[in-house]
Amino acid sequence: MHIWVDADACPKVIKDILFRAAERTGAPMTLVANQPLVIPRFKNIRALRVAAGFDVADNEIVKRLATGDLVITADIPLAAEVIAKGGYGLNPRGELYTTENIRARLNMRDFMDSLRASGIETGGPATFSQSDRQAFANQLDRFLSTHYRPAAR
After folding, report:
1. What pLDDT, in 10s, does the model give residues 64-112?
2. Which residue in 19, 139, 25, 37 sits closest to 88, CA to CA?
3. Is the whole-model pTM more than 0.90?
4. Phi (first) and psi of residue 35, to 5 degrees
5. Which terminal Cβ of the chain has fewer Cβ within 10 Å, N or C?
6. What CA–CA distance (Å, rounded) separates 126 from 70?
């Protein structure tokens, strides 16, 4: 299992949680972004810089994704592609995207896009909180404890 991070919009505090989890478990992790990233020097963590452009990082993640991989993203269409390809999606607020909930998330996203396109002010997401960080860390730990098995050394 590999952890892929849609890193352009991923909050720093979430990246820090991911770095600690990767260091602790040895899980391979790649952060994908269209800008330079600073990452710790662990052999299981790497950064992949892609060209700037709409969905370039998302497309690269989907292209490299294997069944059972975990993708950290707040991008609902990316999460839907990940699930369709047999991966798992986890958003930075700790919600695990599943085959059972992704359709509802896509429908809500499309509905909100329609409202914004018609000129209705919908506001943005809530401020990222300590409880969001904790929810993410807890969900990541649960996921890794049930899905990640380190290779024999």
Report:
1. 999 999 999 999 999 999 999 999 999 999 999 998 888 877 767 666 6
2. 139
3. no
4. -140, 160
5. C
6. 24
